[in-house]
Amino acid sequence: MALTTEQEQALLALLDENKITLSELPAATDLSAEDLLLIRQGIIDKSVNSNVLKKYFTPAASSFTESGIVKLSNAINSDDEHIAATSKAVKSAHSIALQASQDVSTKSLSKSANLADVADVAEVLKNLGLSEKAATRNIGNGENQIPDMSFFKSSNLEFGWQKLPSGIIIQWGCCLSAGSGSIEAGALNSFPIAFPNKCLAVTTTHTGHSPAIVGVVSVFVVNNTLFRCYRSGSGSNEVSVYYIAIGY
C-alpha cells in the first residue's frame, strides 16, 4: 500500500525526531512488513514520494560483510572494491587476456624445434653473455675448436705426466745417474709413459744438499721409452736426480 503525502510527512517528522525506528514503521503506517521490505529493496519505491524519506527505505551500499546495493561498472582497469563488473567488462577483460595469450604463443619458441626457430642467434648469445665464436665452435684440439678436459689428461703422481691439447706431453720424476765416457756408462731409466712420437728434451737437477757428489749431469735419449743419465762426480755409484722430459 502506498503512503499518502500526509503519511510521509508525519513519518518523516517521527524519524527525524527519533521517535520511531524502522522496525516500528509497519505499526505506524498502513504498510505491511512485506510492503516495507519491498520498499526498502527499491522494488516499489514509487510508493515513497519524498526524496528525503526515501533514504530511510534505501538499503546501504554492500560491503565484504554486509549485503546491500551494488554499483555496476564496465571498467576493466579499476581496483575499486565497492563496485561490481558487468558481463561486458568481464568479456572485454577475457578478450584482452586471450589475445595476449595468443601473442605470446606466436612469439614463443617451440620445444620440439630445439632452438632452431631462434630468429636472431647473435642477440640470444649476447643476452646469455656468450661469445658467438665460443658458443658455435665444436669440441676438439684442431683449428677453431675448443678443447675440453679430456684433452688435459694427467697422472699427478711422483712419477707423472701431463698431456696438453696440442699433443705435447710433459713427464717428470726421479731417475738414477751414473758414470760417463760411453753410452753404456749411464744409468738406464724409463719414462712414466712412452712418448707416442718423440722425446724432444730432458732436463735434470740435483737432489739433496750435496750437488758436488753428483757433479755435472747429462742425458741421452735411447728411444721414446728409455733414457740414460750420466754424472761427472766422484765415485761410480748411482745417484738420484730429478728430471723433466718434454715430447709428443
From TrEMBL:
Occurrences of domain Putative tail fiber protein gp53-like C-terminal (ranges): 163-248
Residue ranges of coiled coil: none
The organism's place on the tree of life at top rank: Bacteria
GO biological process terms on file: symbiont entry into host cell; virion attachment to host cell
Gene3D superfamilies: 2.60.40.3940
Pfam families assigned: Gp53-like_C, Phage_fiber_2
Protein name: Phage tail protein
Originating species: Limnobaculum parvum
